[in-house]
Automatic annotation (TrEMBL):
Species assigned in the record: Nocardiopsis gilva YIM 90087
Active-site residue numbers: 308 (proton acceptor)
The protein, known as: 3-phosphoshikimate 1-carboxyvinyltransferase
Protein localization: Cytoplasm
Catalysed reactions, as listed in the record: 3-phosphoshikimate + phosphoenolpyruvate = 5-O-(1-carboxyvinyl)-3-phosphoshikimate + phosphate
Residues given in the record as 3-phosphoshikimate binding sites: 27-28, 32, 170, 172, 308, 335
Annotated residues for binding of phosphoenolpyruvate: 27, 97, 125, 172, 339, 381
Amino acid sequence: MVERAGVRLSVRGAGEVIGRVQVPGDKSISHRALILAALAEGHSTLTGVSRCEDVAHTRAALTRFGVEFTDLDSGAVRVRGGLRNEPDDVLDCGNSGTGMRLLSGVCAGVDGVSVLTGDKYLRRRPMDRIAIPLRQMGARVDGRHDGGFAPLVIRGGQVEGITYRSPVASAQIKSCVLLAGLYAAGRTTVIEPKTTRRHTEEMLQAAGVKIRVEGTAVTVHPGPLAPVDHHVPNDPSQAAFWAVAGLLAGEIEAPGLYLGHGRADFVGVLERMGGDIEVDRASGTVVARASHLRGVEIDAGDVPGILDEIPVLAVAAAAAAGTTVISGAKELRAKESDRIATTAAMLRAFGVQAEERPDGMVIHGRPEFSAAWVDSHGDHRIAMAAAVAAACRAQGESLIEGWEAVATSYPGFATDLENLSGLRVSETPGAPD
Ligand code: S3P
């Protein structure tokens, strides 16, 4: 594992943020498009795949299984799939929980031994949530703390279909088990406590796999995948940063987004806050205009649909009149950082009163923020949320340490911020991590 060099972002706020922005291809869909194309026998062509580091790690990991990727001049990626053998080296998933958990499902299915590792943040994230069902299917999963943490060693091949009732609403767990289920003897069912994003189900179906969804249960039948040409739409979770920037300080239009189940719920929360935000489902466009926001209650019912957007929704709450209470969000503690702690700390750095609760936080809004010195804690979404706060509401120079984490999902964020805001935004070598 090569750890990234530290980068510090300086933002001289506050100003207007106005314009149209093409955010990167959806990260969740990009991982899945690469993996499903790798599993399919034959050639697939993918367009719109995110160029972020997380997805690059998944692509590199798939090459270890002998899958070939070719970058076409058009920007499309051609994939020669047919993944069947164990990988010839360790799979380095970088910072990506999605990459590690989805690939683990594949590793459980193929004959042989796979070793998966990642950066120091990923090696701290819980993997027992996938080790448990994969073992029930018959795979052997070892790792630090009895398979609770990576590096993981998976011995796969002879898996059986199971019915797994997941204790956590997690699309990563669901997808891991469904991918292993493609290789199983018999069918595999995953039952979630609440339905999470449905990309795996939608994309397996498009690849000709027999799959049935009934309420919160998804059943997959083993079988081969057909190669598919897939266009990856733009990432709504990245557009959420700009939507909040538009509401706080101008007007933003983000086109071409995936607005399907479980990914666009942040729009409803921002509307509840009084935001002037419009959605055109046909073109996948979200438009957000400067608004007076008010605090809201966000609870367990909202959380699975806005999981990744909470750090930037917290910035909106910090700029809103009144108090916002977020509850039922304990899962945030298992993300790239402990996002309850790191979101609250980020807001406090801007002079906002924000208190942690075991399963959420309480945020007291204020009209202006003070310039801040923020630590990303290696978490891309904390860094980008802080950049929005700095650009829209903090007078003077704010510094964001650990900005290098942003490359995991949105390498061009600082350039887009500079173009949309006209503010001085600069990246310099940061403090060693
Ligand atoms: C993802 C699912 C979510 C989300 C993550 C991407 C996916 O995680 O937070 O950024 O692509 O399946 P969990 O499913 O673990 O909650």
